[in-house]
Amino acid sequence: MAVQFTHVARVADVPVGEARVFEVAGVRLALCNVEGAIYAIADACTHDDGPLGEGHLDGHAIECPRHGARFDVRSGAVTRMPAAFPVRSYPVRVENGEIAVDLGVGAV
Ligand code: FES
Questions:
Q1: Is 87 exposed, middle or buried (0-12, 13-18, 19+ CB in 10 A)?
Q2: Structure confidence at residue 2 (pLDDT)
Q3: pTM of the model
Q4: Per-residue pLDDT in tens (0 to 9) along the chain, 108 residues
Q5: Measured from the CA of 67, which atom of ligand 1 is nearest?
Q6: Which one, 2, 23, 53, 69, has least CB within 10 Å?
Q7: R_g over Cα of the chain
């Protein structure tokens, strides 16, 4: 599948150390700002569809507000149960303060 980045938001819309949820082309994304670096994961915990983008961001880990599973926002990998499967992560491109995400080739 061809790489095609879609504009999602401005970097200024995602405060450092926090996550924000955006919906693009029917996909709900949690954009996470870790010390100025932007990462994009699906806004749905793989344990029970918890709203990951509303979770607490601790370094590169985001904690699901529903039952406390943790994921690495860089890869989507699970770092704490009860989730057993990684969350989808998406390639991100930042140019001139604008965030674009490739919705087509997310990992997982
Ligand atoms: S829904 Fe996320 S930990 Fe259960």
A1: buried
A2: 64
A3: 0.93
A4: 567 899 999 999 999 999 999 999 899 999 999 999 999 999 999 999 999 999 999 999 999 999 999 999 999 999 999 999 999 999 999 999 999 999 986 555
A5: 3
A6: 2
A7: 13
Sheet holding 89-90, edge to edge: 19-24, 27-34, 37-42, 89-90
Cβ–ligand 1 distance for 48 under 6 Å, the answer: yes
C-alpha distance from residue 70 to each of 4, 10, 88 (Å): 29, 26, 13
> How remote is the CA of residue 65 from the centroid of ligand 1, in Å?
7
User: What is the residue whose two structure tokens read 């604008």?
Assistant: 98
Q: Which two tokens stand for residue 48?
A: 């029970």
55 Cα to the center of ligand 1, angstroms = 10
